[in-house]
Write a structure and sequence with these properties.
The protein is an alpha/beta fold and 209 residues long. Helix content is 58%, strand content 12%. The protein is built from 9 helices and 5 strands; from the N terminus they run ααααβαβαβαβαβα. A 5-stranded parallel β-sheet has the order 2-1-3-4-5, sandwiched between helices. The longest helix is centred in the N-terminal third of the chain and has 23 residues. It is elongated. The protein starts with a helix and ends with a helix. This is Cobalamin-binding protein.
């Protein structure tokens, strides 16, 4: 029988080989969908450990990227046991780097960690024009809209985008992230929350449920 605590800790320790071996052995026992979902939840708790260690400075950006990638690999091992229901979707996040900014590392880490936490993420990429954010938000009605930017000019683009979204009645929660983002700029932009690291951003999103 799979020890969920060992699985959680192994993922938190970034022991990829151990995690995949544990899950392959588990999958070979033909587990029920509920048992497979418990294993996914254990993996997600491991991802939370990774996030905490990153916040504490013990893990770095590369560790977050690696953890997100191999968590996806871990869930793929379990997919045959998860049936058509797959994992419970926590909600939809519409994500993009705002107009005028071409940086995507932070956005991509946030995307990986959001998906690992059970969110469906619609990633529009980089240099996303205001009208694209608005059109897509009206189309899919996401619970959360995430805007990323590294350049200081991104703050103005974020404000323009938030103003445009509110003007057409979009009611999604809005979180902004990136190096230039502060409490003051969050208030200026009109977003609901801000973050400078992906792990904290996931916690904020989970708190909105």
């Amino acid at each position: 029988m799979l020890d969920l605590n060992i699985l959680t800790q192994a993922l938190g320790d970034l022991e990829e080989d151990q995690v995949i071996e544990l899950l392959k052995e588990f999958a070979a026992t033909n587990p029920s969908e509920n048992e497979a979902l418990e294993a996914v939840a254990a993996c997600q708790r491991g991802m939370a450990i990774v996030g905490d260690l990153f916040e504490n400075g013990e893990y770095f950006i590369g560790d977050l990227i690696f953890a997100g990638e191999f968590l996806t690999e871990a869930i793929n091992v379990l997919k045959p046991s998860l049936g058509s229901g797959a994992t419970k979707v926590m909600g939809t996040i519409l994500l993009g780097t705002v107009q005028g900014d071409l940086h995507d590392i932070g956005k991509n880490i946030f995307k990986s960690m959001s998906e690992a936490a059970g969110y469906e993420v619609i990633d529009m990429g980089i240099d996303v024009k205001v009208e694209i954010f608005v059109t897509k938000a009206k189309e899919i009605k996401p619970q959360i809209i995430g805007m990323s930017g590294v350049l200081t000019l991104a703050i103005e683009s974020m404000k323009e985008t938030v103003d445009a979204l509110k003007a057409v009645g979009v009611e999604s929660k809005i979180i902004i992230g990136g190096n230039p983002v502060t409490k003051e700029s969050c208030a200026y932009v009109g977003a609901d929350a801000f973050t400078t690291n992906a792990a904290e951003g996931i916690k904020i999103c989970q708190g909105w449920e």
